[in-house]
Amino acid sequence: MDTPQRQQTIGVEQAAEAFSAEVAYWRDVKGLAKKALAARMGFDASYVSHIESGRHRPTEDFARRADVALESGTAIWKRWRDYETAKLHASKPTLTTTPALSSQYPGTDLIVEHDAARLDYDGTAYRLTMRRLLRNTGVEPVTRFLIRISVDRYPGEPERSKQHYRHNPLTWDELDLTAACQEEPMRWEAKHDHDAFKEVWLLFENDNARFPLYPGDSVWIDYVYSVGDNKWGRWFQRAVRLPTERLEVTLAFPITLAPAVWGIETSMTADARPLPTAPTRHDDNDTAIFTWNTTRPPLHTRYRMEWRFRSSPEATTQGRKQP
């Protein structure tokens, strides 16, 4: 006897939240205020705010206009399609559904057991080292993992930033991106390649082997890249896009720069507010190391670390960064 085909979808509420988060993410990437985005799209500013907060449901018209206005390469449109699919399956209670976290990983429940980011600054360039412990609790193997790299030298001044990166684009050569899974090198493929924003698929394979993340397994992946401080501003943000059990951030700066660090938290339902706990500091020889961590952060929450160098005369001229 044939069994019914498994329908792999996400819930309506989860799909709506993912759509709102995608719009907010791309608006941040472009450095646009809600009012500015609304003007580009021909909407009232309050409507954009209601979409991002989840008070209004996604619409096809909004998704198409947002894709064009934010140059998201159909990323927002795809989130709307996920939402429509979720509504369709929700209206058919006889179907058996297997929840999926995202259309990026169909058939999987991908969980981040540990997310650890370390940012080192040597006075001229930043080097980011990311480590993630991934667990596949779904029914299909995972063969790739999406990462995002985004910079903003002049936050709050989108036209200035856009002009800056038009003349000084972020390049693959300077990023020198490398990735590994359990010390096995990972190939990568570019999904989006813009002047100040990249999206990259890390592939669970290389020239010698394939090593998918199978259901029930956990694995550490690591990736590293560098950006000069003429393109990387003075902020670093972590966005929670997958269920995460523990999130950790470490910032390391030369003591001679007299660094000061603070952080803010934002979500779809709350305005920006200080981190619930302060970053802690300890010094290691000539390096000031700041750490902050949290457990089980809510989905779509963003944690932003900011800093200034009190001994640096250009301290107030730097911008900020978002991954």
State the assembly state of the protein chains.
single chain
Give the SSE string.
EHHHHHEEEEHHEEEEEEEEEEEEE
Q: Tell me the β content.
A: 35-45%
Number of strand segments: 18
> How would you sum up the global shape?
globular
The span between the termini is: 49 Å
Percentage of residues in helical conformation: 10-25%
How would a textbook summarize the main sheet? 8 strands, mixed
Walk me through the structure:
With 323 residues, the chain is an alpha+beta fold. The protein is 24% helix and 37% strand. The radius of gyration is 20 Å and the shape is globular. It has an 8-stranded mixed beta sheet with strand order 7-6-10-4-3-12-16-15, with no helix packed on it. A 4-stranded antiparallel beta sheet has the order 8-9-5-18, with no helix packed on it. The protein has a 4-stranded antiparallel beta sheet with strand order 11-17-13-14, with no helix packed on it. The chain has 7 helices and 18 strands. The protein has helices at residues 12-30, 34-41, 45-53, 60-70, 75-90, 158-167, 172-175; strands at residues 7-9, 97-99, 110-121, 125-136, 144-152, 178-181, 184-185, 188-193, 197-203, 218-228, 235-239, 246-254, 259-266, 273-274, 280-284, 287-295, 302-309, 320-322. The protein starts with 6 loop residues before the first strand and ends with a strand.
Give me some keywords for this one.
37% strand; eight-stranded mixed sheet; 323 residues; globular; four-stranded antiparallel sheet; 18 strands; alpha+beta; disordered N terminus
